[in-house]
Amino acid sequence: MAEITYLEAIREALVEEMERDANVLCLGEDVGVFGGAFKVTEGLQARFGENRVIDTPISEIAIVGAAAGAAHMGLRPVAEMQFADFISCAYDMLTNYVATSRYRTGLACPMVVRGPSGGYVRGGPFHSQNPEAAFVHTPGLKIVCPATAEDAKGLLKSAIRDDDCVLFFEHKYLYRRIKGVMPAGDHLTPIGRARVAREGKDLSIITYGATVWKAIEAADQLAQTGVSVEVIDLRTLAPLDDDAIVATVKKTNRVVIVHEDTRTGGIAGEIAARINELCWEWLDAPVLRVTAHDVPLPSAATLEDFVLPQTADIVAAAQRVGTY
Amino acid sequence: MKGGARGAKRSAAAPAVAGRLSHSDKLSLYYWMRLTRTLEERLVNLHRQNKLVGGLFRSLGQEADAVGSAFAVEEHDVLSSLTRNLGSLLVKGATPVEVIRQHMATADSPTRGRDLGLHFADMGRGYIGHISPLGDMVAVMAGVTLSFKVRGEPRVGLVYLGDGATSTGAFHEGINFAAVQRCPLVVIAENNGYAYSTPTAKQSAAKRFVDKAAGYGVAGDHADGNDVLAVYEVTKRAVDRARSGGGVTLIELVTYRRRGHAEHDNQSYVPGGEVERWAAENDPIDRYVRVLIDREKVEQSDLDAIDVRATAEVDAATEQALRSPPPAGPDALADVYANPSRLAPHWYRR
What we know:
A: alpha/beta; Rossmann fold; 14 strands; B: alpha/beta; seven-stranded mixed β-sheet; two-stranded antiparallel sheet
């Protein structure tokens, strides 16, 4: 089997699900003829027609709202945010309407809102954001952040089949840098389950998205100094996989949590709190965080590199936790 | 002030679609308006007895707007109601006991105590209540009607918003999206003079809300919202247009909010005499009674019988609702998601 990129894996998931279920449709800005700003939906409109791959006005509220309405009627809309940064334009629709609809009225919103998130690409303040924490705080939404091509495909297929709204944050840095061989058949990755990206016994790095790869790099470097690092790729942020978090804490007793998102109010705080509540007595060292600094993400390479977590930062944190 | 004069204006050159209404349809319109008012009056009593949860929002004087428009859609069509569309929901099949339970937040209310007032839905009967951020339902209904379009179903959507919600981004994005996609959607802007305390002049510089239709490239129409037959006609035209592939229509119904935003609101901002003038000169039920008696040759005794029926139904519904229990606390943890269908309580609540 040939390797395909993370981006191609996402497209493959869309194609397979659209082939499988006539209710699946895509909508978003420039997703049709143009195939999307990153070409994720390239070729889909030619294949499935204008009724199933819908170019929309620049209207994130309407894209998400219309997806919800269509979902009420039994369709399975996959709405694209051209950049995940723009999902904040639809914050009201997602948090007040979509997230509460089943709970209040019994009307389900089986829909996916997907789009490119993340930095390391010099995209600046409006094309680099990691908006996940704002939505993790909203009951009723599920949130997925794949790090591998295999999971990008398997999680998107699961998200499309999920009976609730899934926010699917792709990482644009990984789009064409990461490749994988897709498992044969109907490849579904379960939502809500983390993955051990690398086995280890001395210390755990818990992370997701693009920083999974930086954590693996850091683990490789630490291995050369004799430290065995386990890397947990959360894959899903809502619901968090408490069992996987507890299991790795009990195994290594030392934890660094890494994310690209800003620090204050980020997911790392939530994970640290859960570790505290669920398995504090298993810890041999304080839990440390490696995250972005609490600033808007600047454009210049020197600034962005300073703000975002780098492999060396993870190594430094791991050494500190490891020698505590 | 625009008060009395506004509501008295008649829809220009409306073809006589109301002619299609049978005699029994015309009596039904009266029944639904009467039921709306009687039910709301009962809710006022319950509210004063502290039996309701939350505020109470009246549609007094706007019953024709809600009932006449909802009467123009079919059973398989979907409407999204607003704060003052109790009449629309009743026409679409919501029952008085459901409405009272919903206002009491009982365990057996349509939202099982999770939400209040007219915030409830039943796709089987074809209605989705609004949410508090106004204008959002225009975008949602764009999607509902998009599904009709892509599946080639001959169904139509109807969404209401108030004069205030025409200022929201969701209204703009929703109607524009529906217009571009030529969705079978009818958008009714209910101009009742006030958004909470804010008069229409501070909401929009447009002379009429229906003038916005041109900017979206959709059909625009308007009617006297207190004339139930005119409301029916203008809505029916738009529904027929939508069903035959003609796309979106924006309708402005001019009416008047005779009570405050909710019952707590003393309307201190309303010029003296305005409410009284609308009540005396332009009550939609009074006006329709005159039409029925003068033009339709209905006997007053027939209308009295309908009034008795409406009261009996509301009495029975009240009795039933007052026996409904409140929801059990732990039920709050169910149905946030399909899977898991129930969340675990915190340890100190186990």
